[in-house]
């Protein structure tokens, strides 16, 4: 047997999906997450597979999505580090950018992000490159040795190196690293040209510092998992999800942990994109709602939107990532009252420890999950019976902390909690759609995560979205997405050239460099010309603009670049700019090339997609019970008798109407009034608002 395993660690549960590459069968399970020691829940998931008949020796490949890097940044739990910069740039992190979030008037109250590295741990060294990468002043190697010894004496465990203009020529940074490793072998060292070889010194330096600070914890975490996997009887390949939506090997993550800051959420987007590419639903809005937060992404024509930089907490970082918005609304989001008795939900979460009050682990605050339980919207047990819920605990905390102070019934308070949480999600959907010129009504909503199905129809109602598509394993979609993901390597070089001053020879050389780096990485991972592909791109802007648009470059099989190809790509940029912003400056402004890059993709064997059959022919076969659920129908709110269906017994192509509850071991889907649904031939629930699409 040959099993491919996907493991996604969330705030509350760790999801495991196993796929047999020989016979095409799937197995899935959930174990409770262990936030204080994430590797424990990972290994518990591997051990639990044995109870399902999967021996460790049968596992050929493990793909992992992790939030270890994300949480370390959000909680400021990255390692202490030193920073080495070019002389005269000691206050670079203090200067930062002049950009102010929100309206410019906020400059009065806005405080710049705290320094990643305190000023007393920043050291300047002599030596300078110009903007072309040519040496103006040689590197003072003795000064570097002195700094390395000083950091060693202080006991700083990690050192970041970010020198001015190094993106044009890494020679000085590479020499600094060599000297540090010679003087201080046990130190973790990260140079900016390894993290991101692009300009914009502040973002490159912040990214390098965060990468450096994450190296000790991520290295320890990955080494622990690798050691356990190596104890199996066969050679298990171990890959970790990157923010870009591709997998990479564990050694790369140890050197570049910053590439995994959106590791977990990206996998779910890959799963949704797979549906969008192979079905009639090409445009989707993903809604990944777990125990702590909700991640939302726009998929257009089968492809998720991508970013070359983004924001994690208060820090702007440069690394390829799926374009998504995170909202502080999850099953564990805490409901609370302001000093003026206004009801708020989130962003603080009860997580898995202690979790919602109904978990019985000591939670003392009302959460979204508690509200759903009181209103009869979820079963009295979760995770296939592993977590038994206590409704009386939920009722007590909502009564004491929300209902009584607001002079509401418990049901009214619980419904208000759910509605506010849903409004928060709807605002997040607006951020990835309306605020970027896209009409959400032209998309289908794709909910997953343990709680996504509980809020999908309500969110769709708010935004007038007419279709909701629920995957077969919504509570394990991110874990399943890991199994659908290919290996990926991204390479970028900054070379600013204006279209009237093109140096084609130089561009040809740079494309050759980024292509060869991507190809060599994939070949080292066992791929060959038949199962890898290289996607090239360029970042453009109009002369005088501050930020760029990425445009794919169509190269022939051999990868040769010609002036015609560059000119054709510039013409495509005009259309991309028009599509994104509603105007272009074609014939009016010169175009500037900023970055040249390549993405190498190692193609894994695709999962077999089999026809779904519940073996049921009548909807009554799927009816488990009738449940009293708090519903608003025809303007009246109250408890109504609602059918509860077993997801896996609902017959294919048999329409049914809401309100209804569809339960399965990994999640629950609540279909609101005025919605109809049917299960398609692949097992997806296709839900549509009455009145048509």
From TrEMBL:
One of its GO terms (cellular component) is cytosol. One of its GO terms (biological process) is glutathione metabolic process. It comes from the Bacteria. Residues 4-183 form the Hydantoinase/oxoprolinase N-terminal domain. Residues 504-681 form the Acetophenone carboxylase-like C-terminal domain. InterPro entries: ACX-like_C, ATPase_NBD, Hydant_A_N, Hydantoinase_A, Oxoprolinase-like. This is Hydantoinase/oxoprolinase family protein. It comes from Peribacillus cavernae. Residues 204-490 form the Hydantoinase A/oxoprolinase domain. It holds the Pfam family Hydant_A_N. GO terms for molecular function: 5-oxoprolinase (ATP-hydrolyzing) activity. SUPFAM superfamilies: Actin-like ATPase domain.
């Amino acid at each position: 047997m040959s099993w491919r395993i996907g493991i996604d660690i969330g705030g509350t549960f760790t999801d495991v999906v196993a796929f047999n590459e020989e016979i095409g069968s799937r197995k899935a399970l959930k174990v409770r997450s262990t936030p204080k020691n994430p590797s424990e829940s990972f290994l518990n998931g591997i051990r639990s597979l044995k109870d399902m008949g999967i021996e460790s020796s049968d596992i050929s490949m493990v793909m992992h999505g992790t939030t270890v890097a994300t949480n370390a940044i959000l909680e400021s739990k990255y390692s202490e580090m030193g920073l080495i910069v070019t002389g005269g740039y000691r206050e670079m992190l203090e200067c930062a950018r002049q950009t102010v979030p929100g309206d410019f008037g906020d400059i009065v109250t806005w405080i710049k992000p705290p320094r990643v590295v305190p000023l007393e741990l920043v050291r300047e060294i002599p030596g300078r490159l110009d903007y072309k990468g040519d040496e103006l002043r040689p590197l003072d190697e003795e000064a570097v040795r002195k700094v390395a010894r000083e950091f060693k004496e202080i006991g700083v465990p990690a050192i970041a190196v970010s020198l001015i203009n190094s993106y044009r020529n890494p020679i000085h940074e590479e020499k600094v690293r060599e000297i540090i490793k010679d003087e201080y072998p046990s130190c973790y060292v990260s140079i900016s040209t390894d993290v991101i070889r692009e300009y914009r010194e502040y973002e490159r330096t912040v990214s390098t510092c965060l990468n450096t600070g994450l190296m000790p914890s991520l290295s320890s975490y990955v080494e622990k998992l690798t050691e356990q996997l190596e104890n199996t009887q066969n050679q298990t390949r171990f890959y970790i999800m990157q923010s870009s939506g591709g997998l990479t090997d564990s050694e790369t993550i140890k050197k570049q942990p910053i590439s995994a800051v959106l590791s977990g959420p990206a996998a779910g987007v890959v799963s949704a994109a797979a549906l969008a590419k192979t079905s009639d639903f090409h445009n989707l809005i993903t809604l990944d709602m777990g125990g702590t937060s909700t991640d939302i992404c726009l998929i257009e024509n089968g492809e998720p939107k991508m970013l070359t930089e983004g924001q994690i907490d208060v820090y702007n970082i440069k690394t390829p990532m799926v374009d998504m918005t995170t909202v502080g609304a999850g099953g564990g989001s805490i409901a609370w009252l302001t000093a003026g008795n206004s009801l708020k939900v989130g962003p603080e979460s009860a997580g898995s420890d202690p979790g919602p009050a109904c978990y019985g682990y000591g939670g003392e605050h009302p959460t979204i999950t508690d509200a759903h339980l009181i209103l009869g919207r979820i079963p009295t047990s979760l995770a296939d019976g592993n977590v038994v819920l206590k409704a009386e605990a939920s009722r007590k905390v909502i009564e004491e902390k929300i209902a009584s102070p607001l002079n509401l019934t418990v049901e009214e308070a619980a419904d208000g909690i759910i509605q506010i949480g849903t409004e928060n999600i709807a605002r997040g959907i607006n951020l990835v759609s309306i605020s970027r010129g896209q009409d959400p009504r032209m998309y289908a909503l794709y909910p997953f995560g343990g709680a996504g199905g509980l809020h999908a129809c309500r969110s769709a109602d708010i935004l007038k979205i007419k279709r909701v598509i629920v995957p077969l394993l919504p509570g394990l979609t991110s874990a399943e997405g890991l199994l659908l993901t290919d290996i990926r390597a991204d390479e970028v070089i900054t070379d600013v050239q204006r279209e009237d001053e093109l140096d084609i020879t130089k561009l040809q050389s740079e494309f050759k460099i980024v292509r060869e780096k991507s190809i060599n990485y994939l070949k080292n991972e066992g791929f060959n010309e038949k199962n890898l592909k290289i996607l090239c791109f360029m970042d453009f802007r109009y002369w005088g603009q501050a930020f760029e648009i990425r445009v794919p470059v169509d190269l022939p099989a051999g990868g040769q670049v010609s002036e015609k190809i560059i000119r054709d790509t510039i013409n495509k940029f005009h259309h991309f700019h028009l599509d994104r912003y509603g105007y272009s400056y074609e014939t009016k402004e010169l175009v500037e090339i900023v970055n040249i890059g390549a993405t190498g993709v190692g193609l894994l064997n695709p999962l077999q997609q089999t026809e779904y059959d519940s073996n049921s022919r009548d909807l009554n076969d799927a009816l488990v019970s009738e449940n009293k659920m708090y519903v608003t129908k025809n303007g009246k709110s109250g408890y109504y008798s609602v059918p509860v269906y077993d997801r896996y017994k609902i017959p294919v192509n048999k329409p049914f109407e809401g309100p209804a509850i569809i339960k399965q071991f990994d999640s629950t889907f609540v279909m609101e009034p005025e919605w109809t649904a049917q299960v398609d031939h692949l097992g997806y629930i296709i839900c549509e608002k009455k009145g048509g699409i």
